[in-house]
Amino acid sequence: MLEAPGRVYAFYLDGFKRMTLGRTLWKIILVKLLVMFVVFKFFFFPDYLNTNFQTDEQRAGHVLEQITRQAGQNN
């Protein structure tokens, strides 16, 4: 039974070594993920707390207010 995970790992390792088109597809997938998580963050998700509040206490107070306001509206 302990041999099964090793065989599965070897199966996938061999498959990734032999793939040709798949490598290109994986590169495309990684570039798309990079674009989504890095580039989009700068354009669509500005750092609201750092730009609108000067201290950590103000930021924490705003977050707490937003969380408790939404919790109160759901009840």
| Helical coverage, percent range | over 70%
Return residue spans where pLDDT drops below 50 for at least 5 consecutive residues. Answer: none
Number of strands: 0
Q: Main sheet?
A: none
Question: Would you write up a description of this structure?
Answer:
There is one protein chain. By secondary structure, the chain is mostly helical. The protein has two domains: 1-44, no CATH class; 46-75. The chain is 85% helix and 0% strand. The chain contains four helices and no strands. It has helices at residues 3-18, 21-44, 48-52, 56-74.
Element layout with pairings:
Layout: H1 3-18, H2 21-44, H3 48-52, H4 56-74
List keywords for this structure.
single chain, 75 residues, mainly alpha, 2 domains, 4 helices, elongated
In short, what is this structure?
With 75 residues, this protein is an all-alpha fold. It has helices at 3-18, 21-44, 48-52, 56-74.
